[in-house]
Amino acid sequence: MTPTAVVEQCTVADEASGPYAITAGPDGALWFTLVRGSGIGRLVPGSEPTRFPLGPDRGPTIIVPGPDGALWFTEYQAHRIGRITTDGAVDEHPLPTSDSGPYGIAAGPDGALWFTETAADRIGRITPDGQVREFTLPITGGFPSAITAGADGGMWFTLNQASAIGRIGAEGEVTVHPLPTDAAGPVGITAGPDGALWFVEIAAGQVGSITPDGAIDEFPLPDRTARPHAITSGADGRLWFTEWAGNRIGSITTEGVVETHDLPTPGSEPHGITLGPDGALWAALEFGALARITSSSSVDAHR
Any idea which positions bind substrate (predicted)? Predict the structure, then answer.
């Protein structure tokens, strides 16, 4: 991160609620999951947060905007896919496979939402009207985690326990790319500005990239014990990521130059990160807050 980076914190929940993932909604607000508090939060920058409670023991994890103007999220504990409108109306969709542990979710180029089933070795697809289809992966115990749409029309996902990156096509055809580093533990993944997919390796302390044809690069972080968790593209052409154990926010150029910045509160446990509607980066801090990260480069790029 540049030396002029500024980090501000906004309390949105108590520590017991656990803000976990965050995304920018179509309504100009930030939406975030409360993984331990079993709720969804909404924040318009500069205003007070709003909380929408779910039923007990839902475990909402990743949240993303859908093609229908609503927000879609996974319920890891309840094994469901949830949908919330911008005015707070919630629908929940049980999955065909019980105890599947849905975690990552992303909008696909086909107008559907694609999601991972960590405990079932499957990738799922749900249409806005709730039709679900599941695809079995060729790996057992791979723990598919985050998922994102690639520039090549496929959906790319991390296989946390298999130390690999996977790609699934529209009809369920799967390709698996093992990583050069054993037991790397990839988690977050996002599409980069260079046409590659960028991911973080929580167990290896590295950031990686993979091109659509499968060429992989890995970049060690200055602190290999930082446990990077989530990653997103910024407005400045850099990839931004959270360091869960390092209590930092980091950025990396497509050439592999890394910069990091400490968060002001020790032990804040940064998890999800997204580009906000105001051009800043926003991260969910599990101790009960959101962090807003700005730098001269990111603000200039947004303008």
Answer: 229
pLDDT score at 297: 55
Per domain, the residue ranges of the chain are 1-17+225-303
Give the Cα separation of 33 and 18 in Å (integer): 8
- pLDDT band at 298; cut points 50, 70, 90: very low
Alpha helices, DSSP H only, in the chain? 296-302
What CATH number was assigned to the domain covering residues 1-17+225-303? 2.40.10
Cβ-based burial of 112 (10 A; exposed 0-12, middle 13-18, buried ≥19) = buried
Q: Which residues are catalytic?
A: 271
Contact 86, 109 (CB under 8 A): no
Confidence at residue 295, expressed as pLDDT on a 0 to 100 scale: 76
For the chain, helix (H) and strand (E) counts, in that order, are 1, 28
Tell me whether residue 269 is annotated as binding. Answer: yes
225, 245 Cβ separation under 8 angstroms: yes
- Which two three-digit tokens encode residue 144? 């598919």
Does the annotation flag 229 for ligand binding? Answer: yes
Which positions ≥6 away from 236 have C-beta within 8 Å?
295, 297, 298, 300, 301
pLDDT value for 5: 76
